[in-house]
Amino acid sequence: MKILVTGGLGYIGSHTAVALQQAGFEVLIVDNMSNSSIDVLEGIATITGVTPQFKYLDLRDKEEVHHYFKTHRDIDGIIHFAASKAVGESVEKPLLYYENNLSTLVYLLQECTKYDIHNFIFSSSCTVYGEPDSLPITEDAPVKKATSPYGNTKQISEEIIFDTTQVSDIKAIALRYFNPIGAHESAEIGELPLGVPQNLVPFITQTAIGLRDQLSVFGNDYSTPDGTCIRDYIHVMDLAEAHVVALQRLLEKKNQVAFEVFNVGTGKGSSVLEVIQAFEKVSKKPLNYKVVDRRPGDVIAVYADTSKANSDLGWEAQRDLEEALRSAWQWEQKVRANKKEN
Ligand code: NAD
Ligand code: WQD
């Protein structure tokens, strides 16, 4: 079975490529390397023993996308990761986000209808829920008005996919990721943020390694037990494995409706201070941090109700917060050691 992984050189795509190959799928990757590098292919090959077929492709180029599908007629399914993902940047450059996250999706779905590709998995986000009315969040919780163009692209994407599945043979699953962290246990692949990390865990590991002076904790006066925000941090390999079972559900036609959504999280919320403490425990290093003002736009608490994924996909997260942080720390150490050598 041949599976096209768009954005397969990126953080989640590369870990999913590993999980797919280990489950026996043949992986084809397209990527424009706007937020990744070709070295990732080597990492995937080292772990799995197989180098995925790779093509440089900018999915915004409709002609090139068409040419790709015309010359690859035997694709059984698509997992679509390719997108821009920085929330703050999306506020500054909304059109870049609407173009990159929406036009690419439309072009791919057009090719699916032309070439009878019926299985489609989409990277959605818990950001579609905004500030939830109750916790843990189930999939039928209302989708709130997005607070950023990035979040809006995820909501619109889900609608585009839903509408398409109603008038075509395409069956689709949107996985709403909570907060992916960590790296493959081999430390051959991991997260590689460009510039100053916006997300908590890469900022923690870069601070611990000495690349940043201090972690700013954004607010400790929220209505949570320790005053800091709560998130559902999921190990990226658990997330990767969720894609494999979602794909199998589509291929085995076990889906109940043409478009399904699933929360992919651990079901457990952790506060920023709890993450810091867990990191200090696994790294055996004290972390230099300071509480500063709240970051505008942060929701107070989000964590998933994963019962739908547990029952329908037969999936649940296997790795805990400490294991995820340990892998993130091993990855950071390896990346910096390699940088020093070069
Ligand atoms: P990433 O930036 O590491 O990976 C995305 C990949 O897509 C990159 O390799 C990039 O070069 C590629 N890409 C971007 N635009 C492209 C284009 N026009 N043509 C071809 N390739 C293109 O991001 P990630 O963290 O792996 O996220 C993957 C998906 O998951 C995204 O859709 C993101 O919105 C979604 N998501 C991520 C998170 C998270 O916290 N990382 C959470 C929820 C949802
Ligand atoms: C986690 C917690 C911060 C950095 C973002 C996107 C979301 C999704 C995942 C794609 C928050 C706190 C952070 C720092 C801190 N992506 N923090 N100091 O905000 O839950 O979600 O990534 O879909 O759409 O918005 O993740 O890692 O940025 O923050 O105190 O330097 O850590 O305030 O409470 P977030 P995050």
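^ WQD complex. The chain has a mean pLDDT of 97. The two ends are 39 Å apart (CA to CA).
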